[in-house]
Design goal:
The structure is a single chain. The protein is α/β, with parallel strands linked by helices and 362 residues long. It has one domain (32-361): TIM Barrel (Alpha-Beta Barrel). Helices cover 47% and strands 12% of the residues. The protein is built from 16 helices and 11 strands. It has helices at residues 3-12, 18-25, 30-48, 87-99, 115-131, 147-156, 170-176, 183-195, 213-225, 243-247, 255-269, 278-283, 287-293, 306-309, 325-338, 352-361; strands at residues 51-61, 104-109, 137-141, 160-162, 199-202, 205-206, 230-232, 234-235, 273-275, 298-299, 342-343. α4 (87-99) links the parallel β1 (51-61) and β2 (104-109). The longest helix has 19 residues, at 30-48. The chain starts with a helix and ends with a helix. Bound molecules: S-adenosylmethionine (SAM). S-adenosylmethionine (SAM) binds at residues 70-71, 73, 108, 110-111, 141-143, 163-164, 166, 205, 236-237, 239, 279, 314-315.
Length: 362
């Protein structure tokens, strides 16, 4: 398909096929890319206007029971100094989210499935709800959990969950994870969340060793087939103390391809929330703004103490490790204003897709 044909299709707003998604991801010329991002941004404007939704990110702990081959906080990385935030520190972060007028916060961390951890997260959810008078939307990103645990955390008051599929091609997924991590279980977790009331997010890493454009097209189709509400995806960045980072030490991160994936997701899925991730910001100082201009509408500024942030090193060179929240916010707000976007103070910023899929069921 040539680009004139592709743009005629994109401008018609008709549903996109797999070959059209592939054509989007294969675009290269500067003019074509500018035109693609403008179309995706126009679609974002139709869904949420110029607003950017903030989620204050709290990295609860880097203790992880999993051993993903790409991740700096994997269980087997003995160089990591492990930490867990105290409950009071998490509550202070919630106060900060409220004070900063972030509508929502995200509790993210290494995966643990032990009763002590499950109880602690439940207490935190209840505590944050009570302390903030239910004013903050609450997202969890704590890996694969059992249906019972998901139900408990939902009953306590969390309502969004992010669990990246990482790679929707089962063969690629298996290359990225040890044999005790099953692709099928991860899919089952995502499906359980979305069928049990959660606003459900997933995503993939982009530009992984061994990943093809067809894999990325399948990822986009996976998001649609699993009726996903929120997308969090970004470039794969290597970490020397991981098996994948050691095998591919000078891997070039796929910045442009990541922007094309954001644009393709916006044009294909339309009314979902899409995050412009820290990994984009790590590659380029204006990476998050470029993500917004390619169709993303969510940003997750880090609320944690910078001493913890340094230990939550998923990949090398993670952005804003030394800056306090005030410095990060100043530069973020300036960057957002420069591109004509505006923060949505105190709004939860729920994904419209969630309400349309829930109402279409009833
Ligand atoms: N434990 C939870 C989970 O597995 O969903 C949340 C924490 S996990 C560290 C958050 C995300 O970081 C993963 O879903 C993965 O996509 C991303 N990540 C880990 N290592 C990465 C790397 N080297 N490059 C880019 N993203 C990475």
């Amino acid at each position: 398909m040539d680009s004139a044909e592709l743009f005629a299709k994109l401008e018609s707003s008709a549903p996109l096929s797999g070959s059209e998604l592939s054509a989007i991801l294969n675009l290269t010329g500067a003019d074509d890319l500018t035109r693609l991002y403008a179309l995706a941004y126009a679609q974002k404007l139709r869904v949420t206007g110029r607003k950017v939704f903030f989620r204050g990110l709290v990295e609860l702990s880097n203790i992880c029971a999993r051993n993903c081959f790409y991740c700096g906080i994997r269980r087997g990385n003995s160089k990591v100094r492990r930490y867990r935030m105290t409950e009071d520190e998490v509550y202070s972060a919630a106060d900060m989210a409220l004070k900063s007028h972030f509508g929502s916060m995200v509790l993210q961390g290494g995966e643990r499935n032990d009763p002590e951890f499950i109880d602690c997260v439940e207490r935190l959810i209840l505590g944050i709800r009570q302390r903030t008078g239910n004013q903050l939307g609450l997202t969890l990103s704590l890996g694969e959990q059992s249906p019972e645990t998901c139900d408990r955390w939902f009953a306590a008051g969390a309502h969004r969950y992010l669990l990246r599929i990482e790679a929707s091609n089962p063969a690629l997924f298996r290359k990225l994870h040890p044999a005790d991590q099953s692709f099928e279980n991860r899919v089952a977790c995502i499906d359980y969340l979305s069928s049990h009331g959660w606003q459900t997010g997933t995503g993939v890493m982009i530009g992984l060793p061994g990943q093809t454009i067809d894999d990325l097209v399948s990822d986009l189709i996976f998001f649609r087939e699993h009726n996903i509400d929120m997308i969090g995806m970004g470039p794969y960045l290597s970490h020397a103390d991981t098996p994948l980072g050691a095998a591919y030490p000078h891997w070039t991160p796929a910045f442009e391809l990541s922007l094309k994936m954001i644009a393709a997701a916006r044009l294909y899925l339309r009314d979902v929330n899409i995050a412009s991730t820290t990994a984009l910001h790590t590659i380029r100082p204006d990476g998050r703004e470029l993500g917004l201009l390619a169709g993303a509408n969510v940003i997750m500024p880090n609320l944690g103490d910078s001493s913890y942030r340094k230990e939550y090193n998923l990949y090398e060179g993670k952005a804003s490790l030394d800056d306090g929240i005030d410095d990060c916010m100043t530069s973020l707000l300036e960057g957002i204003a420069k591109i004509g976007e505006e923060p949505a103070p105190d709004e939860w910023g729920d994904p419209k897709h969630f309400f349309s899929r829930v109402s279409s069921k009833s």
